Amino acid sequence: MEYRLAKTEDVKEIYEIVQDTIKRIYPKYYLPEIVDMFCEFHDKDNIGKDIEDGNTYVLLENDKIMGTGTRKENQITRVYVLPDFQRKGYGAFIMNQLEAEIGKQYDKAEIDASLPACKLYYNLGYKTVDHGIWECANGVIQIYEIMEKELKKISDASGNLRLRPYKTCDAKTIVTWIHDEISFRKWCSDRYESFPVTEEDMNKKYMDCNGDCTNMDDFYPMTAFDESGVVGHLIMRFTDEEKQILRFGFVIVDDAKRGRGYGKQMLLLALKYAFEILKVKKVTLGVFENNESAYYCYKAAGFKEIALEKEEYYNILGQRWKCIEMETEAWQ
């Protein structure tokens, strides 16, 4: 996956992505006059102007652009992902990148929300602060939501986050971050017998059972924290006798802080510890295919998907969940 500033030669492809998305998705939500207004507003001239101003970004997979986003000062606009690639975490990834840029100069991000995207923005922490009105053809009126998100915590996340060994008192906080069994199983697979997990369950697995590892020196539970307290957690365990391969697991961030860069930063701190302190050559992890937000967080931290001779599935909640294997090698 590649995320970069758009180039002049990207105009045609970005235009096609925006127009295709509007024409396929928006008729489910809007009258034809409103759909036409969106198409006219996002024409090649406006897209080209934003590219020239250095405001537009594109997201590519295998050299194909499947998403785009634009920011003007602290205003986010024209965030579109091809319909065939939606609901895979691409939109959230683009939003996170735009927010990171805005957070360098501003305390909040603003966005005029279309109906198809309102749920995404709400899940990312945006709140409706006002409504706007557009007058379209034939007297049709569109009322849209004006949404804002405070970004101060985002800009502080990378600078203040630290990593330390897990303490038994951390469990009391960590177990409160999972509110339903689907999220629980995405986090731990079948490593815990029942939901919900308690702080006693967690400490028994870590302290009494050594994370289910045979050798005492193979297991490293870690906690991420900042000035507000515990904000993230993951475990590390060696998977080979030579201690050259380390596996991450149980990766989780405070649900109130997701979408703010904490997950990526915690992973980067953990990788730094793995490569520079433990001197491993490779770090691996597994993520379920239906956990798109985690998958793209791992990719943003440098993990790459690897092909397996045989695809791996788990029987979870009466369904077969595919597990994707990812890895990253020691920094040069």
Describe the main β-sheet briefly: 8 strands, mixed
Overall outline: elongated
Extract low-pLDDT stretches: 153-158
Q: Nearest-angstrom radius of gyration? A: 22 Å
CATH superfamily of the largest domain: Gcn5-related N-acetyltransferase (GNAT)
Number of domains: 2
Walkthrough of the structure:
With 332 residues, the protein is an alpha+beta fold. The chain is built from eleven helices and 15 strands. The chain has helices at residues 11-25, 32-41, 44-52, 90-102, 118-123, 152-160, 171-174, 181-188, 199-208, 262-277, 292-300; strands at residues 2-5, 56-61, 64-72, 75-81, 108-113, 127-135, 141-150, 162-165, 219-226, 229-238, 245-253, 282-288, 304-305, 312-316, 319-329. Strand 2 (56-61) and strand 3 form a beta hairpin. Helix 1 (11-25) crosses helix 3 (44-52). The longest helix is centred in the last third of the chain and has 16 residues, at 262-277. The two termini are 20 Å apart. Residues 153-158 have low confidence and may be disordered.
Question: What is this entry, summarized?
Answer:
With 332 residues, the protein is an alpha+beta fold. It is built from 11 helices and 15 strands. The chain has 2 domains: 2-150, Aminopeptidase (3-Layer(aba) Sandwich), CATH 3.40.630.30; 159-329, Gcn5-related N-acetyltransferase (GNAT) (Aminopeptidase, 3-Layer(aba) Sandwich), CATH 3.40.630.
Write the layout of secondary structure elements.
Blueprint: E1 2-5, H1 11-25, H2 32-41, H3 44-52, E2 56-61, E3 64-72, E4 75-81, H4 90-102, E5 108-113, H5 118-123, E6 127-135, E7 141-150, H6 152-160, E8 162-165, H7 171-174, H8 181-188, H9 199-208, E9 219-226, E10 229-238, E11 245-253, H10 262-277, E12 282-288, H11 292-300, E13 304-305, E14 312-316, E15 319-329
